[in-house]
Design brief:
mainly alpha
């Protein structure tokens, strides 16, 4: 499993580049998803319940109170990790697939256009 032989083809210069590339791609995908949620939350074609779920997710993250206080170990942080994704999931389930695809395409188009 672990070898004492350090003479393998190990190039430390490649690892950070690969790691940085993956991290950069992850950040871009995350930003694109946030942009999609923003677009859906303001699009008049998005069902009212879906928009409400997205706004509740944002509010829950920003407001200083939680259903379970953060001082309770594990459970205090766990509620944030369950409630917010559940609200986003609900919003996506309530939104027509065509609308999601259209907004996702707009988001990708906006990413590829140069900014002035």
């Amino acid at each position: 499993m672990f070898s004492m032989d350090q003479s393998q083809d190990h190039n430390p210069d490649q690892e950070p580049t690969n790691w940085r590339l993956r991290a950069r791609n992850l950040v871009r995908r995350f930003a694109a998803e946030l942009q999609l949620y923003r677009r859906l939350s303001t699009d008049p074609e998005t069902p009212v319940l879906a928009r409400a779920a997205l706004w509740l997710a944002v509010g829950y993250l920003l407001l200083p109170f939680d259903l379970i206080p953060d001082v309770i170990p594990v459970l205090g942080q766990l509620d944030d990790l369950i409630i917010v994704p559940a609200l986003v999931w609900l919003a996506l389930r309530l939104t027509p697939d065509e609308l999601i695809q259209r907004q996702r395409a707009r988001t990708l188009t906006d990413e590829t256009q140069p900014r002035s």
